[in-house]
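Title: Comparing notes on inverse folding

I've been comparing how different people in this forum approach sequence design from structure. To keep things fair, I'm posting one structure and asking everyone to reply with a full sequence. Here's the target:
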């Protein structure tokens, strides 16, 4: 089998890359370890930056997103017995976020690829990449199948096979682990507020979010290594109430919890995001704690850059943009790393004995909620900074 770009992983990065390449007349094959049902049901992120929405719409896969997504023009920071709105419409006019589940983005992309005759192979076992340091790389999978290609895109997430296949000594890893995780639940209940609430309390962080007018999403800061079995529904609701019902007049609506999971918190960047003819995109190259809602959005930003570089390569044979791929991505990656670390630091309890640290945290929250300049910094990072290439259509 032969294609121009072999893509490992059918998450948002791999699927969107395949679709954007198709729009440029570049062929690809996507190899995914899991089944279609599994990837379409995997509950993860849900906050789309303005640029992500614009990219999906410009690529022709935004119809359902525009119909069912929930545009939000602000978030609330709740602490010290009061709520403070960060008003995007005033601070970053014309830019907003849209709440739309990652699995819905994945469903839309799979449908678009298949409708266009795209080659997406689910349940591809034992994927391995070979000769990535040469200009004739290839992929093997499924006990004997071989895919020859010009370029391989490693879109296989943090635990994939492509990053570890880069020879030792090439990559530098930068990382930070946090002493806590997020316990996330989906509940069949109308959201208790119209916008996301980021709550900082002495007992730890809580987030009130939503997926639709009928489904709410909640997160609780819990110690790293928390066992879900220790969190029956009553305990989840009691803790959410304690952390969210801290302002007059707010009462949390409860309902049936139908999905739950514990997400570890980690910051990680591998540099450079490329080796030979292998290019890493999305979580394969970098991870952020979810507080800043940046993981999925960064994956989209990476594949925009990679699409532009590959389009140039196939147009005139120039590797100039491919050679600069990592450098072009890392500027945004590190901005998102800082923002995600900063939001995490601002809102979570790190060490309950650290009274000095808690006072600093509260002082910083007071600053962010009272200074237009500080609030604008949060707002412009949260809705997503403009792309270097200037727009959704790409270079
Ligand atoms: C449990 C979890 C919860 C999260 N929650 C949030 C959140 O609440 N908010 C937020 O902003 N972000 C969240 N994120 C981050 C966000 O979901 C990711 O940043 C986003 O999925 C990145 O997309 P991606 O395509 O790069 O990687 P992924 O979505 O991880 O896709 C990688 C794909 O590669 C496949 N794959 C892996 N190994 C192989 C292999 N050997 N062969 C073939 N295929 C392979 C995987 O099955 C997967 O389909 C969460 C991430 C995780 C893991």
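Reply #1:
Here's my take.
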């Amino acid at each position: 089998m032969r294609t121009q770009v072999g893509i490992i992983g059918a998450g948002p990065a791999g699927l969107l890359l395949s679709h954007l390449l198709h729009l440029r007349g570049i062929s690809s094959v996507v190899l995914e370890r899991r089944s279609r049902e599994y990837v379409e049901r995997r509950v993860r992120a849900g906050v789309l930056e303005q640029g992500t929405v614009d990219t999906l719409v410009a690529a022709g896969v935004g119809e359902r997103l525009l119909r069912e997504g929930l545009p939000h023009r602000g978030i609330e920071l709740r602490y010290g017995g009061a709520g403070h709105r960060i008003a995007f419409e005033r601070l970053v006019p014309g830019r907003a976020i849209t709440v739309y589940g990652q699995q819905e983005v994945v469903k839309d992309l799979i449908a678009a690829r298949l409708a266009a005759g795209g080659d997406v192979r689910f349940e591809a076992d034992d994927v391995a990449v070979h000769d990535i340091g040469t200009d004739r790389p290839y992929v093997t999978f499924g006990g004997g199948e071989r895919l020859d290609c010009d370029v391989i895109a490693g879109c296989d997430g943090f635990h994939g096979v492509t990053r570890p296949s880069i020879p030792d000594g090439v990559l530098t890893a930068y990382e930070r682990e946090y002493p806590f995780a997020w316990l996330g639940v989906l509940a069949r209940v109308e959201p208790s507020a119209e916008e996301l609430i980021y709550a900082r309390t002495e007992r730890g962080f809580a987030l009130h979010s939503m997926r639709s007018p009928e489904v709410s999403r909640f997160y609780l800061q819990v110690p790293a290594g928390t066992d879900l079995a220790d969190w029956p529904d009553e305990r989840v609701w009691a803790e959410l109430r304690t952390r969210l019902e801290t302002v007059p007049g707010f009462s949390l609506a409860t309902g049936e919890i139908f999905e739950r999971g514990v997400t570890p918190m980690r910051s990680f960047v591998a540099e450079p995001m490329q080796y030979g003819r292998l290019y890493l995109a999305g979580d394969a190259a970098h991870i952020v704690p979810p507080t800043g809602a940046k993981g999925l959005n960064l994956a989209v930003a990476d594949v925009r850059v990679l699409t532009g570089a590959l389009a140039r390569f196939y147009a005139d044979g120039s590797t100039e943009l491919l050679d600069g791929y990592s450098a072009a991505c890392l500027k945004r990656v590190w901005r998102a790393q800082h923002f995600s670390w900063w939001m995490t630091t601002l809102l979570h309890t790190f060490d309950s004995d650290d009274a000095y640290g808690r006072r600093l945290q509260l002082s910083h929250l007071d600053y962010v909620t009272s200074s237009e300049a500080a609030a604008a910094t949060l707002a412009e990072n949260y809705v997503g900074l403009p792309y270097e290439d200037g727009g959704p259509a790409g270079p």
